[in-house]
C-alpha cells in the first residue's frame, strides 16, 4: 500500500473527497487524481523522450542508411576572412588566380554523369557535363539514355518539364519526341511528316557498377575501351553504402596526378584525420599522437590496357607511437581513362569493397568529384561508412590545395618526383589535336 506522503513524493497531486462509500459499500476514503506529474517532472520526461528519439534516429541512420554528403564549391578549401562569406572568398580566388599554361580541358574518355539509383524508371534529370547541358532519362524499358538537353526545334530544355514516353523523351514545349538510343525525332504532334534530319545529339553511354557514364571524344570517335564491370556489384555481393560529392576548382589533370605525387602523402596526409581538413591546423601539436604512414607505388599498365594505371598503397596507423597492425590497409587504386578510378580494399578483418572515384568536368576549371562505396553485404554498415568518411577527410585536404594552386606546365622537379613526369606522359594519351582548350578566362565566374 502506498501512503499519501509517498504519492506526493512522486509528484502526483491528490485531493480528499470526504468519506464516501466505495463500490462495495464500505466507508473507505477515495482519492481523486488531479494530475499525473508535476510540471518539472513532465519537462524531464519530455527531454528524456526527445533525446531518446534523437538517439534512436541517429542509431537507425548509422546502422541502416547510406552515408551521403554533398559539398558545394565554396564549402571546402577556401578561407573566408575580413567578414567575407565563403562564396565571396571562392569567387575572389577564381577571378584572381593565375591558371598557368593549361593542357586541353576535356580529355577523351568515359565520365560519370549520375548514380543509377538516382534515376527512376520514367524520370529525367538535367546534368551539366563537359561544358554542355544533357538530359539523362530512364525509359520505360529500364534503360538509361543521355541526349543533348536542348530541343533542336526552338531550344526548350528537354530535362525541364519534359516527360518520358516509352524509350523517348518528349519536349515540354511542342511535344516533339526523340528516341533515346539514336536521338531521332519519331513524332511531331501537329506535323504530317517528321523530317529525316530531325534529331537531337545522342551521347554514347553505358550503365555499369551502379553508375551512368558518357563517352566523350573531341573528334566524335566511338569508345576506345569499356569501363570494367565489378562483378561483386553486379551480383549483389557488394552493396551501396554511401557517396560523397565535391566540386573542385582546378584542371582535371591535377586530380589524378596526385596518385603519382608520392611525396605529398607523407606531408599532407600524415596527420590523423581527427585533425580535420583545414591545413592551417592539421599539423597542430594537439593531434601529433595520431599519424598515418604511407608507402605508395604508381605504374602505368601495358597494352592492351595502356589507358589504365595502378597505384599500390600500403597504409598503417600509429597512435601514441604504437603501430595498430589491425588497421593496416592495402589498397589498389586502378585508374581507367581520365575520369574513373577503382579503389579496391581487401582486409582480413574489415572485409572487401570498392570506392568508385569519378572525376567529371562540369566546365573547363570546375570538376565534379564523387566517391561511391560498395562493400560486402555481411560487413556492418558502420565499417564502410567510416572508411568513406576517412577518405572524405583526406580528400578535402587535397581540395584546399587544388582550389588555390596554379597549374605549372614545366614544374621544378627533383629525382624523387620522377613519377609525376611519368604520369603526365601517360595522361597525355587522352588528348587529341582537336581537344578543346581554354583560350581565355572570363572575369565573371561567380556562382
TrEMBL record:
It catalyses: cholesterol + NADPH + O2 + H(+) = 7-dehydrocholesterol + NADP(+) + 2 H2O; cholesterol + NADH + O2 + H(+) = 7-dehydrocholesterol + NAD(+) + 2 H2O. The lineage of its organism: Eukaryota, Metazoa, Chordata, Craniata, Vertebrata. The chain crosses the membrane at residues 41-63. Signal peptide: none annotated. It comes from the Eukaryota. Residues 110-214 form the Rieske domain. Pathway: Steroid hormone biosynthesis; dafachronic acid biosynthesis; Hormone biosynthesis. GO terms for molecular function: 2 iron, 2 sulfur cluster binding; cholesterol 7-desaturase [NAD(P)H] activity; metal ion binding. InterPro entries: Cholesterol_7-desaturase, KshA-like_C, Rieske_2Fe-2S, Rieske_2Fe-2S_sf. GO terms for cellular component: cytoplasm; membrane. Its cofactor is Fe cation. It is found in: Membrane. It is an enzyme of class 1 (oxidoreductase). Belongs to the cholesterol 7-desaturase family. Its EC number is 1.14.19.21. Keywords: 2Fe-2S, Iron, Iron-sulfur, Membrane, Metal-binding, Oxidoreductase, Transmembrane, Transmembrane helix. The keyword Transmembrane applies. One of its GO terms (biological process) is cholesterol metabolic process. This is cholesterol 7-desaturase. It comes from Seriola lalandi dorsalis. Pfam families: KshA_C (PF19298), Rieske (PF00355).
Amino acid at each position: 500500500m502506498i501512503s499519501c506522503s509517498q504519492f506526493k513524493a512522486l509528484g502526483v497531486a491528490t485531493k480528499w473527497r470526504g468519506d464516501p462509500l466505495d463500490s462495495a459499500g464500505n466507508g473507505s476514503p477515495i482519492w481523486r487524481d488531479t494530475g499525473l506529474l508535476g510540471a518539472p517532472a513532465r519537462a524531464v520526461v519530455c527531454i528524456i523522450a526527445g533525446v531518446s528519439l534523437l538517439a534512436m534516429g541517429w542509431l537507425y541512420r548509422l546502422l541502416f542508411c547510406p552515408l551521403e554528403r554533398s559539398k558545394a564549391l565554396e564549402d571546402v578549401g577556401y578561407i573566408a576572412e575580413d567578414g567575407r562569406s565563403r562564396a565571396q572568398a571562392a569567387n575572389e580566388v577564381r577571378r584572381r588566380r593565375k591558371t598557368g599554361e593549361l593542357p586541353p580541358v576535356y580529355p577523351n574518355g568515359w565520365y560519370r554523369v549520375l548514380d543509377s539509383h538516382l534515376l527512376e524508371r520514367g524520370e529525367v534529370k538535367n546534368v551539366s557535363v563537359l561544358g554542355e547541358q544533357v538530359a539523362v532519362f530512364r525509359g520505360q524499358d529500364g534503360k538509361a539514355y543521355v541526349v543533348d538537353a536542348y530541343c533542336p526545334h526552338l531550344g526548350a530544355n528537354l530535362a525541364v518539364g519534359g516527360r518520358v514516353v516509352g524509350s523517348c523523351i518528349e519536349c515540354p514545349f511542342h511535344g516533339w519526341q526523340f528516341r533515346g538510343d539514336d536521338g531521332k525525332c519519331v513524332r511531331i504532334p501537329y506535323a504530317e511528316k517528321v523530317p529525316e534530319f530531325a534529331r537531337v545529339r545522342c551521347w554514347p553511354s553505358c550503365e555499369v557498377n551502379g553508375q551512368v557514364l558518357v563517352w566523350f571524344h573531341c573528334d566524335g570517335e566511338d569508345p576506345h575501351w569499356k569501363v570494367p564491370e565489378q562483378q561483386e556489384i553486379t551480383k549483389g555481393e557488394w552493396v551501396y553504402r554511401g557517396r560523397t560529392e565535391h566540386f573542385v576548382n582546378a584542371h582535371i589533370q591535377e586530380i589524378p596526378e596526385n596518385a603519382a605525387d608520392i611525396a605529398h602523402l607523407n606531408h599532407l596526409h600524415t596527420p590523423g584525420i581527427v585533425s580535420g581538413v583545414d591545413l592551417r591546423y592539421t599539423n597542430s601539436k594537439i593531434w601529433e599522437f595520431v599519424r598515418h604512414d604511407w608507402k605508395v607505388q604508381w605504374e602505368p599498365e601495358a597494352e592492351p590496357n595502356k589507358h589504365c594505371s595502378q597505384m599500390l598503397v600500403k597504409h598503417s596507423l600509429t597512435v601514441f607511437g604504437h603501430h595498430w597492425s589491425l588497421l593496416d590497409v592495402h589498397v589498389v587504386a586502378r585508374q581507367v581513362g581520365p575520369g574513373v578510378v577503382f579503389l579496391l580494399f581487401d582486409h582480413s578483418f574489415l572485409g572487401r569493397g570498392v570506392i568508385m572515384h569519378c572525376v567529371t568536368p562540369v566546365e573547363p576549371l570546375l570538376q565534379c568529384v564523387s566517391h561511391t562505396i560498395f562493400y560486402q553485404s555481411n560487413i556492418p554498415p558502420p565499417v564502410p561508412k567510416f572508411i568513406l568518411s576517412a577518405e572524405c577527410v583526406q580528400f578535402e585536404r587535397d581540395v584546399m590545395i587544388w582550389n588555390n594552386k596554379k597549374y605549372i606546365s614545366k614544374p621544378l622537379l627533383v629525382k624523387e618526383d620522377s613519377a609525376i613526369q611519368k604520369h603526365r606522359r601517360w595522361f597525355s594519351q587522352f588528348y587529341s589535336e582537336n581537344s578543346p582548350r581554354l583560350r581565355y578566362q572570363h572575369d565573371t565566374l561567380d556562382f
